[in-house]
Amino acid sequence: MGNEFVCCSFLLLLFVSLSPGNAAASHTEDDSVVVLQLPEQKDGHSSPHMGMGMSFGMVEDDLMNPAAKVFATIKDIEVGKTMPIYFPYIHDPTTFQFLPKHKTHQIPLSSEQLPELLRLFSFSPDSHQALAMEQTLKICEMEAPKGEVQGCVTSLESLVDFAQDIFGPDSQVGIVRSSLTSKSTPLLQNYTVVESKEISTGKLIACHNEPYPYAVYYCHFQLGSVNKVFMVSLRGDNGEKVDSAFLCHMDTSTWSAGHIGFRLLGLKPGESEICHFFPAYDMVVVP
Known about the structure:
Elements: H1 15-18, E1 24-27, E2 34-37, H2 53-56, E3 71-72, E4 82-86, H3 101-104, H4 114-121, H5 128-141, E5 148-153, H6 156-167, E6 174-176, E7 188-202, E8 205-210, E9 216-222, E10 227-236, E11 241-249, H7 260-265, E12 274-277, E13 283-286
Antiparallel strand pairs: 1-2, 3-12, 4-7, 5-9, 6-13, 7-10, 8-9, 8-13, 10-11, 11-12
């Protein structure tokens, strides 16, 4: 399927039709609120960015999860290099779109109002949808680690506002995303690097799609950090091509030694950068 790489500010509005989200929408008669359905997991594994585990480390069992096969270093993206990588197939990309701000801003993103939200979306309190919503709200409300700016965005407008608070009010904003994979692509297979190109260095915001009845992204930015983002063209053992956003955290000296990236790659804090491939429903925001 086509590449979804967007890096120019004048293309930013295309993100409305390309961006990930979490549900199919229907509207009330007066169009004042949005009623949505949270889909079930279809592949039996968690998101490739493994929820908050990518930022804060994971338990030992996650080393066996195929979805953890997204970590690498810059030397691993040399042309001709082969490695196993997990890329999920997105069954319906149209369900991964931001809703307009005038629809989502009316719905509180608040743990305190979770009972009311469950009634709004007609979810049982003991359903998997309720648990997913509760976990996402906790992520959105948690205190940012020292040296980080973080928050959740629910529309294209709120994403731009979040980015401009970091990059500057007059800055132009671009998005780097991975391409989708086809139904015939294995979730985990060996990929060979065909080409890699550095896109940006400096201020980068990583945004991860979180399970919710409409598109919610957890976005975070590390103050004073030096990061790099690449677009890497890969060809799988089955012959199909993926163009993937590849984000590198260059200073890992303050990271926990138990972070799954270190354990998977056999590295220690500060010994090397840690990078990870992005699935199509996550994104890197750049100035």
